[in-house]
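debug: dumping io for the single-chain case to check the tokenizer round-trip. Nothing else runs in this session.
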Amino acid sequence: MTDLFRALKIEKENDKQTVNLVEISENDLMEGNVVVDVTHSTLNYKDGLAMTGSSPIVRSFPMIPGIDFSGNVRSSEDPKFSKGDRVVLNGFGLSESHYGGYSERARVNSEHLIKLPENISNKQAMEIGTAGYTAMLCVLGLESCNVKPADGDILVTGASGGVGSVAISLLSALGYSVLASTGRLSETDYLKELGANSVIDRAELSEASRPLGKERWAGAIDSVGSQTLVNVLAQTKYGGAVSACGLAQGMDLPATVLPFILRGVSLVGIDSVMAPIAKRERAWERLSKDLDMEKLSKMVVETTLDEIINFGQSIIDGQVRGRVVVNIAK
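debug: decoded output
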């Protein structure tokens, strides 16, 4: 008898996309040298785009969405991994060109896996997820430009989203004063509980403004892009830095070079998808030390493989707060 397990599958026929929960076997999985029993995944903005077909995230069909997962090694052809090892995978084409985490089992390339730190559980790994791992990369980006807590406020845009929520918690724990920008001022108490010192309306940053404004923050973590990122750069203090990791407002950048050549501002591009293993391991090691897991648990909503499809449009519409963890084994 074939060993079947459940997976969420995106299919497309005659330009019509469908998403269904199906049963598949290991024979249906894509190539790889490690098989993982997936325990948890997450919902990210990219997952919402893939499931709704709002943007051409999926490069080939059929596809299993889910840009990350944590789980336990079931079998491995690579001696670096043994049965039972707890592992995490973020990006590397999951949900785009390789079957992703919304499946009870995954077969992947061992070069894309890392072992979880002992003090981070499988569930906590996905409470952090790609959003939290990206937030840590953004913090490392600011540190690489020598932005210190004593230099002034750090702005976090898209503050109530996954990257923003974890970034606020991380920055606060590291001693930075955090200014949070959000389109949902009703989330002010939530953001302050995470560690934000003050909260501003994203409308202050979303419209065209002067190419160089008043110096307001020493650095920023931006997941919005477009005009918001332009305004963030224009108001960054002399010698400051901005870690840019997203494009929720758009992928354009209608900016001038003035912040760079008159104030020495650095724009640090953050790529979480293809980041090398050494950088990933550093990020996860720092997360294991610097992230307040109690705060993390307060920003989490848990759902299941049966229900995750209902969240796809919600995250695109900006209606999802914090982190959504998918309990695959439930």
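debug: round-trip ok. The longest strand covers residues 4-13.
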